[in-house]
Design a protein that fits this description.
With 136 residues, this protein is of the alpha+beta class. It has a single domain, classed as Nuclear Transport Factor 2, Chain: A. 32% of the residues lie in helices and 46% in strands. The protein is built from three helices and five strands; from the N terminus they run ααβαββββ. It starts with a helix and ends with a strand.
Amino acid sequence: MTKNDQTSEKSRFDRARSVLKQWTIAVGSGHIEAILALYAPDAILVPTLSNEVVVTEEGRRRYFEFFLSNGVSECLVDGEVIRINHELRTVAIGGIYTFYLRNGSGEQTVEARFLFTLEEIGGRWLITGHHSSRCV
C-alpha cells in the first residue's frame, strides 16, 4: 500500500467515523432533520423497532418520528469494526450501540447490533444502508 493509499484509507476511515458520530449525536438530541440529512436519498434502512424495510426519505422520517417518540435521550456506540472497500470506495461500520430511553416508566436501555454502509456522494459521505436489530 502506497503512502497515498494509506492517506486515502485514513481519510475514508475518519469520515465514516464522523458520520456515525454525527448520527449518534442527532439521535440523542432528537433532531430528525439532522438524522435524515445523513442518509442518501435511496438509502436502505432496516430499523431496530420495526419489521419494515424503509427505502424512502418519507419512510425514514416516519420511522425516526416513531423511534424518537419512545424518549430516546442518548445513543452510545459500545464497539465498532470498520471495513473499507477500496475498489468500490465504500465503508462498512458494524458494531453494538445502546439507546437510552426516558419515558413515563423511567429509564430503559435498548442494546442493538448495527451495520452502516457509507459512500461519498456529491462530495459528502452519506449512509447508503443501515441495519439495526436488538441484541438477544
